[in-house]
Design brief:
This protein is mostly helical and 221 residues long. 76% of the residues lie in helices and 4% in strands. Belongs to the nicotinamide ribonucleoside (NR) uptake permease (TC 4.B.1) family.
Length: 221
């Protein structure tokens, strides 16, 4: 058995619960990507893409014949979305680093109009996707799956643009994501979502401090 086959089939038994190793490994890559994003490192994007590919197979449990035959279409779909938006972010940060600024991204606040659009987009996206995900057979409550998908899209795009508020969107995603994952039986992901929630608050503080230092230096120049 080659390493890829082992990773796809390997399971961890905890009490009566069976957890796929690729769920753990995929989330570990996600944490590493979040750390890289907080530190504004370009490698955060490709590392995240690897985790997204693994988690895509996890959240389509009924399709891939996993021990947990539950499809979370929003969770699975957002992995594809992550890959697409991550490629965009990867290119954006690389261009920024190669420019006269010489940094991957310079954190900044989004304009008030952008904040309003982000909020409306989160609500509208949830309302539009809920009946679609329900028709496709997503796990209840479907609105939570739609909320997570929409929020993840907006947060990842915000990270690519360098908006500090993207960390707060992740908090909103995690608050809904933890109960949904527990009810669907994805316990490893639920535990890691709790960690993500705390980590996103730390990331928000770090980016705010970087932003203030940069503004102070520009003001003194």
């Amino acid at each position: 058995m080659n390493p890829i086959e082992w990773l796809f089939d390997a399971q961890l038994q905890i009490g009566s619960q069976t957890i796929l190793w690729r769920e753990i490994v995929g989330n570990a890559f996600g944490i590493a990507s979040a750390v890289g994003g907080m530190r504004r490192k370009i490698w955060a994007w490709p590392v995240g893409i690897i985790g997204n590919a693994l988690l895509f197979t996890v959240f389509l449990g009924a399709v891939f014949g996993t021990p947990n035959p539950v499809n979370l279409l929003g969770q699975a779909g957002r992995q594809i979305m992550f890959i697409v938006v991550s490629i965009f972010g990867w290119v954006q940060w690389q261009r920024s680093r190669n420019s006269a600024v010489h940094v991957a991204v310079a954190p900044r606040w989004a304009a008030n109009r952008t904040r309003i659009l982000l909020g409306l987009g989160l609500v509208a996206g949830t309302l539009v996707l809920t009946p679609i995900f329900r028709a496709l057979g997503s796990f209840e409550p479907v609105w939570a799956d739609a909320w997570i998908f929409t929020g993840s899209l907006l947060a990842t795009y915000g990270m690519a643009k360098g908006w500090t508020e993207f960390w707060l969107i992740w908090v909103a995603v995690d608050i809904v994501g933890v109960p949904l994952l527990i009810s669907a039986g994805y316990y490893a992901s639920a535990v890691l979502y709790l960690f993500y929630g705390a980590f996103t608050l730390v990331g928000f503080v770090v980016w705010v401090r970087v932003q203030r230092r940069r503004n102070a230096l520009l003001g003194a120049a």
